[in-house]
Each structure stands twice: as structure tokens, then as C-alpha cells.
Write a structure and sequence with these properties.
The complex is a heterodimer of chains A (639) and B (100). In chain A, 72% of the residues lie in helices and 4% in strands. With 639 residues, chain A is mainly α. In chain A, the strands form 2 sheets. In chain A, strands 1-2 form a two-stranded antiparallel sheet. In chain A, strands 3-4 form a two-stranded antiparallel ribbon. In chain B, helix 1 (4-24) packs antiparallel against helix 2 (28-53) and helix 2 packs antiparallel against helix 3 (57-87). The radius of gyration of chain B is 17 Å and the shape is elongated. The chains are: A mainly alpha (639), B mainly alpha (100). Chains A and B meet through helix 26 of A and helix 1 of B.
Chain lengths: 639, 100
């Protein structure tokens, strides 16, 4: 049973081998090491999944990491149902994306570096989900953040890419600061940071309050919200969502793996993992639900008008992550995890298809310059179409089941904001279907709008890229079938599987209502697709007319609600001003430099006086020595 | 029988001659000889005490000191010769390169 250790440590070994020997020896063969390692992890993961299905939960410490008085932390692993789901998602996506990268990154000069970082990322992500205490979770959390930074700035000779990497890292600092404080609060409250004792004792602190900045705050609310700060940063929720669209500067496989399928979902995983704490605080849950709902609406509206193919999918990711938080916020953690699991497949697939399109278009990202690609790249077209059907919530596809479960539980749950977020969720479902199909229609249908040269170059991607697409496509279609609700005659196996860890909220509603919620979400999805078809296939002059008619609204959406500009105005520019004028101008130039230059100058002056003693004449030294002896003798005689 | 005091006085006088010679002469060879004087002044007092205390260990120690002194003198003279070849002088006032 202890072979589960191979799951994180195989990718770590691949990272070490690639980073040490990749540049000189492995070069074009680096991918073999990484692919074999993640595929190995995947096989062990599947074996572990069967163990968990059989009811065996692992929770053991590998070795003592820090022992300091009361504070004890180990590198330890907890593999329960929740972890098993995450493990499957991470290793499956990671393996397929590693294979895809062989085709996508072919001939790149940093080939070995790319695979090394990809493996390191996989290791950190696995450590994150397998942790049995908060500090190891934090280790993985920061590790994936670091790898994200490396990989966003992978083309570091491009200014925009290195800037985007820095932006992602710095924005995440804000969230992680709160997360760090949350872990400290947990330690102060419970005296331990292991999951198991913390969660089992949490109930005992349910009504405790603490004085925070002069207010009496509910202790569990405070802890939950501090932890949620971390989630907001990592999962790109409002107001820290700004880094994710810019992160699209990285290579597309990275966008698919890190910024769609795995890392960004870590925030949802955190909320689900800490559900015993969140469940004790209605306020915290309400904030989680509202943050998720507002973010998903906000990002979906921006996605409507963008033209950069990867950015549309990025906003779609933010929006879907909002959906997962919405689910967690109404207490439906299982539904959130279900959406996380289906989303990983169809969103990774969307990104990889976008990468395939980029590959064919020689790096072109602008939707307005594409069109009619269907006949050139059929595999990409069909897989992307299935992914879009899935995300749009067409019945039978994976996205439908998870989205429907979220909406139903939001509608019928006991959360005070449940009905409100249900309305938003339904609107977002409509918007999602619309922008997803806008992307499909503008890319693959109609006439080609690019240059002649690009058209000549169009081709289907190599096998290494299309095979992962097809496999992920199966996931995007079928992964939802494990969670078909009872209403449709399914067994809701996914929910049952996670019940021991996450519990399940009670739904207060009749079957009729459940049918109604489902029907509304199906109608929303289909009308979104239909509207997109009308706008971009039938009457292509309507969008142009609309943008002219509602120019102000269009401008706001096109500029992403001016959030970047706002941050630049209230945070970035004051920070740079302070740095330039106060920190460099006063602190550095006047204070630090005065000390740094003053001390050696003073020592120099003093030594100039002192070194006169060193005459270089032997007899002076001898005389001083004799004098010294005389003084000592005199002192001994006179004592 | 010569009393111990006389030996010690002799030792002190020879030692002080060495000290003054070392401090006042500028010829490095003379200074070197002064050092040897100081060394032997100490030897005198050692032998004197050895005789006075009827303990042979002092005299044995003196034999060792003389042996080592011979070796040291050989090295010292070699250094002086090397110095002279380089600087064409044995005058210490002209050897002040180590001045701060």
C-alpha cells in the first residue's frame, strides 16, 4: 500500500533528472523521462483509487518535518475520497498534456526546461492534494504558484510574458498572505495544524468569538474567510482575478494544465477540504457563494466580446471557477467538486484545441482572422465542438450533469442567498453557451479571414497532439456519467463517493421543481447556442450593429470593466511612486546609503591615524616590546 | 663558592647589554649578535639555578637551548644574507617597506 508514495515522487525524480541532465544530455529526449514519470503516477493513482473505492483511507506521516515545542509538522499523506478525485484529475490531465506538449513544443530551445517545470508542477500539485496537514498544503500551494510563474514567463525574452509571470506571482501574494494568517489562526485555536484533529474539534469552537481589530468576530468565520483569501488568489476570483487572463502568455499546454484543469482549482479544493470549518459559519459560506456568483457573471460578460481565443477561454475558466465556489457556498461541496472534475476535462480540452488552432495559424490568436478552419483540421474541430457542448450544458455531456447539480442544489438548498445565486448561475449558463459557440463559429465556420500565407499553411496538428485531444474528448463527454442524478435514473455515484468526506446538503424541493430547474438550465444552454448561431452564422451584421448601438456597454466589456486600469491607478502607480520618491529617494539615498557609506568612511579615517604606529622599523617594535615587559615587571613588583 | 646572586647579576647585565645593543645598533648583524647575548644570558641563569638547586634538569635544558639556538642562528644568518643580496645593505633603517 505504501507505493502511493510513487505518485508525487516519480514526477519529482523526473524534474531532477531533466533539470540536471536535460540541457547537455537529454535535449530532444527530455519528454521521455517526464512522460514515463507522470504515466507511472497515473497508474499508481488508478490502483490507489481502487483501494479508496474499497474503503481504505490512508492517513500517515512519512517523516518529521518541523518539531518546535507544541508545533509539530510532518510530511504526511492523506488519501481519502476527496484526494482520490483530485489525484485522478491531476494525473490524467497532466499525462495527456505532457504527451500533447511533445508535439506542441517540438523544436523549442527550452524543451528540457519546459518538461522539467511541468514535472515539478505535477509534483507540487500532488503534494498539495495529498497533504494531511495545512503546512504541507501550503508548501504545495506555493510550489504550484512558483511553477506557474516559471511557466507563464517561459518565453522570458518576451517582455509581456515576463510581466505576466510577475503579475501572477504578486497578485497571488495578496491571497496567500491571508491564507498564511488563516493557518496561524488555526494553530493558535487548535494547537495543531493536522486536518484530522482540527476538523474533529472544529464543532467545539463553533460559537467562540475573538477580538479582531476591535470587533468581536466569530472565530470560525474569521478562519474560514482567511483561508478563502488564499482561494480567491489562486482560483482567480474577484477581486484578484486579474492575473489569469494575462497568464495566457505562457505556452498553451501550460494554460491547459495549470490555468484551467489543476492549479486554479486548488482554491475550490481548499474550500472543500476545509468544509468542516466553512460549514460552521453561515457568513463565510454566504461570502463564498456571492463571490463565486458575481465572479462567474462578471467574467462571462467579459468573455462575450473578447477576440483573443485564449483569453476567452481564460475568462470562461474564471467564470466556471466562480460556479464551483457558488456551489461550495451553498453547502454543495460535492457538486462543486463534481464540476471541478468535469471542468478539468472539457476546459483542458478547449485549451489544447486552442493550442492546436494556434499551431495551424502560426501563432495567430485573433478570432477575427480565423474562420472556416473546420475542413482543414477536423479532429480539432470535432473535439472542440464536444468540449463546447459540454461546457454549454447540453444534456448527456459531462458539463450538463455537474452544472445541473449545482443549480439544483443552489435552488433547493437552505442557503439564504441560494435563490439569488441560482438566478445568476442560470444567466451565466446562457452566457457561457453563447460565448463558447461564438468561439466555435468564428473559428471553424464561415470564410477564412486571415492572410493568404496563413491559409496556405493551415494543417491538422501532428498525432502527438490529436491523440490527447481525442482521449480528453472522451473525458469531456463521459466523465459526467459517474454522477447522473437519481432523477434521471442514475446512481449519483460521484456524490455518494464523496459523501463520507464532504457530506451532502439536503435538498428541499419536489421532483417537479427539480425538473423545472433542469429544464430552465437546458433552455438557457440551447438559447445561448442558438443566439450565437444567429449572430455569427446567419445574420453576421447583428453583432456589428449591436456594438455600435450599445457602444458604451461594449467599451466597458471590451476593457474588462477597467479593473486593470483601476488597480493600476489605486495600487500600482502609488506603489511605484512610493518606491521611487520615498524608498529610493529618501530611505535608500539618504538613510541607507549614508550608513553604508558612512561606516567604512569612519573606519578609514580612524585607521589612517592608527597606522602611523606601524613605522616599519624593527627597533621601534622591539623598544615597545621592551617597554611592555618593563611595565609588566613594574606592576608585579609594585603590587 | 660563588653565591647565586653573582651569577644572576651577571645574567642580568649580559641580558641588558643585549637589549641595549638590539635597540641602539642599526647593523643587522650586530642586532643579531645582541639577540644571541640575551639568549645566553638566560642560559647563564638557568645553569646557575641548576647548580644552586642541585638539579641536573636545568643543565640538560640548556644543552637543548644551545642546540636549537645553533639551528636558529643558521637560519637567521641565511635570512640576513638573503636580505643583503636583495638590498645591498645591512642597515635596518633602510628596511622599512612594512611601514603603514
Amino acid at each position: 500500500m505504501s507505493n502511493y508514495l510513487l505518485i508525487p515522487f516519480l514526477p519529482l525524480a523526473a524534474f531532477l533528472i531533466n533539470i540536471l541532465f536535460g540541457r547537455k544530455y537529454l535535449k530532444e529526449n527530455s519528454h521521455w523521462v517526464s512522460i514515463l514519470a507522470v504515466a507511472g503516477s497515473w497508474i499508481v493513482t488508478v490502483a490507489t483509487l481502487f483501494d479508496v473505492l474499497a474503503g481504505r483511507v490512508i492517513n500517515e506521516d512519512l517523516y518529521s518535518w518541523i518539531v518546535s515545542g507544541e508545533f509539530k509538522v510532518s510530511v504526511g499523506f492523506l488519501i481519502d475520497q476527496l484526494t482520490a478525485v483530485m489525484l485522478i484529475v491531476v494525473t490524467t490531465c497532466s499525462t495527456l498534456i505532457h504527451i500533447y506538449s511533445v508535439g506542441y513544443m517540438h523544436g523549442d530551445k527550452g524543451y528540457y526546461r519546459f518538461f522539467a517545470y511541468l514535472s515539478l508542477f505535477t509534483f507540487c500539485m500532488l503534494m498539495l492534494v495529498m497533504a494531511n496537514n495545512f503546512l504541507q498544503l501550503y508548501f504545495g500551494w506555493e510550489g504550484v504558484g512558483l511553477c506557474s510563474y516559471f511557466l507563464i514567463g517561459y518565453y522570458f525574452d518576451k517582455k509581456s510574458a515576463s510581466d505576466a509571470g510577475k503579475k501572477a506571482f504578486i497578485v497571488n501574494r495578496f491571497g496567500d498572505f491571508g491564507f498564511g494568517l488563516g493557518i496561524i489562526m488555526i494553530f493558535l485555536t487548535f494547537g495543531t495544524i493536522y486536518y484530522e484533529p482540527v476538523f474533529s474539534q472544529a464543532k467545539g469552537f463553533a460559537s467562540q468569538t475573538i477580538n479582531f481589530l476591535g470587533y468581536d468576530v466569530h472565530l470560525m468565520t474569521l478562519i474560514a474567510l482567511l483561508l478563502f483569501c488564499g482561494s480567491i488568489g489562486k482560483s482567480a476570483q474577484m477581486p484578484l482575478h486579474v492575473w489569469l487572463p494575462d497568464a495566457m502568455e505562457g505556452p498553451t499546454p501550460v494554460s491547459a494544465l495549470i490555468h484551467a484543469a489543476t492549479m486554479v482549482t486548488a482554491g475550490v479544493f481548499l474550500v472543500a477540504r476545509c468544509s468542516p470549518i466553512f460549514s460552521l459559519s453561515e457568513t463565510a459560506l454566504m461570502i463564498v457563494a456571492l463571490t463565486g456568483a458575481i465572479t462567474s457573471l462578471f467574467a462571462a460578460t467579459i468573455g462575450l466580446v473578447q477576440n483573443d481565443i485564449k483569453r476567452i477561454i481564460a475568462y470562461s475558466t474564471i467564470s466556471q471557477l466562480g460556479y464551483m465556489f457558488l456551489a461550495a457556498g451553498v453547502g454543495a461541496y460535492t457538486a462543486g467538486m463534481f464540476h471541478l472534475y468535469t471542468h478539468a476535462f472539457f476546459k483542458a480540452l478547449l485549451f489544447l484545441c486552442a493550442g492546436s488552432v494556434m499551431h495551424a495559424m502560426s501563432g495567430e490568436l485573433d478570432l477575427q482572422k480565423m474562420g472556416g478552419l473546420k475542413k482543414y483540421m477536423p479532429v480539432t474541430y470535432w473535439t472542440m465542438l464536444f468540449a463546447s457542448l459540454s461546457i454549454a450544458g447540453v444534456p448527456g455531456f459531462a458539463g450538463f450533469f455537474s452544472k445541473d447539480e449545482i443549480l439544483w442544489l443552489a435552488y433547493s438548498g437552505s442557503s439564504p442567498v441560494g435563490k439569488f445565486v441560482w438566478v445568476i448561475g442560470t444567466v451565466v449558463a446562457f452566457l457561457t453557451a453563447f460565448y463558447s459557440f461564438r468561439l466555435i463559429f468564428l473559428t471553424f465556420h464561415g470564410k477564412f479571414r486571415g492572410t493568404h500565407e496563413q491559409e496556405h499553411h493551415l494543417h491538422e496538428s501532428p498525432k502527438a497532439m490529436t491523440i490527447p485531444l481525442v482521449i480528453l474528448c472522451i473525458g469531456a463527454v463521459a466523465s459526467g456519467w459517474v454522477g447522473i442524478p437519481h432523477l434521471l435514473g442514475g446512481g449519483a455515484h460521484f456524490t455518494e463517493f464523496l459523501k463520507p468526506v464532504l457530506g451532502h446538503p439536503e435538498a428541499h424541493g419536489t421532483h417537479a421543481e427539480e425538473w423545472m430547474v433542469m429544464a430552465i438550465s437546458i433552455i438557457a444552454g440551447f438559447s445561448g447556442i442558438g443566439l450565437a448561431a444567429l449572430f455569427y452564422l446567419v445574420k453576421t451584421d447583428i453583432p456589428v450593429m449591436l456594438t455600435q448601438k450599445f457602444n458604451a456597454a461594449y467599451k466597458i466589456l471590451w476593457n474588462k470593466y477597467y479593473v486593470d486600469e483601476l488597480y493600476s491607478f489605486i495600487i500600482v502607480r502609488p506603489a511605484i511612486w512610493t518606491a521611487k520618491n520615498i524608498l529610493i529617494g529618501i530611505t535608500d539615498a539618504r538613510i541607507i546609503e549614508a550608513v553604508v557609506n558612512g561606516v567604512p568612511k569612519g573606519i578609514g579615517e580612524f585607521s589612517r591615524i592608527l597606522r602611523k604606529v606601524q613605522t616599519g622599523l624593527l627597533q621601534h617594535y622591539a623598544a615597545i616590546m621592551a617597554l611592555g615587559v618593563l611595565i609588566i615587571v613594574a606592576m608585579m613588583l609594585l603590587r | 663558592m660563588v653565591p647565586l646572586n653573582w651569577y644572576l647579576m651577571l645574567s642580568a647585565v649580559v641580558f641588558m647589554i643585549g637589549v641595549f645593543g638590539f635597540l641602539t645598533r642599526r647593523n643587522i648583524i650586530i642586532m643579531f649578535m645582541s639577540i644571541e647575548l640575551m639568549l645566553n644570558a638566560v642560559n647563564i641563569s638557568l645553569v646557575a639555578f641548576s647548580h644552586y638547586l642541585q638539579d641536573m634538569r636545568g643543565q640538560i635544558l640548556v644543552i637543548f637551548i644551545i642546540t636549537v639556538a645553533a639551528a636558529e642562528a643558521a637560519i637567521g644568518l641565511a635570512i640576513i644574507i638573503a636580505l643583503f643580496r636583495n638590498k645591498d645593505t645591512v642597515h635596518v633603517d633602510e628596511m622599512n617597506e612594512m611601514k603603514g
